[in-house]
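seq:
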Amino acid sequence: MSSTPSQPADAFTAPSAHEARVQRVYTSLFRIAERHAVTDGQRRRQTQSHMVSPYEAVRLVSFLLSGAAQLEGGEPEVDRADITAALSLLPLARAEMDEVEAGLLKMARGRGMTWSEIAFGLGLETSQAARQRYERLASRTEADAAKVDE
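struct:
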């Protein structure tokens, strides 16, 4: 596992920030899984017992730091690199939640819920606020999907 981003093949081509981020995300997931999701007991602390998702990796590091989850025998303490890895995964975790929320709002509308009912469920003051929230989420998730397709 390399600690430096891969260099472009051409010395005159600037490194791609997107490619460096993708590599860092993969490395971050691998690091947290390797250090804190190796044993059956460690994996049971998460929802998916076979693969750590970005949200679960961030949650796991946060729980270990706060004491909400306990380290198992021989498991390394959470260190600065684990925290950096979790921070690197936050945008992906946020994107996962945005997709879940946008999908749930779309399904709520499909089931006939009004924007006022949705606003109540979200703890928002107005139906307009709920509609605007959905529109922002929908445009963000569409933009994220377009980035993945590039």
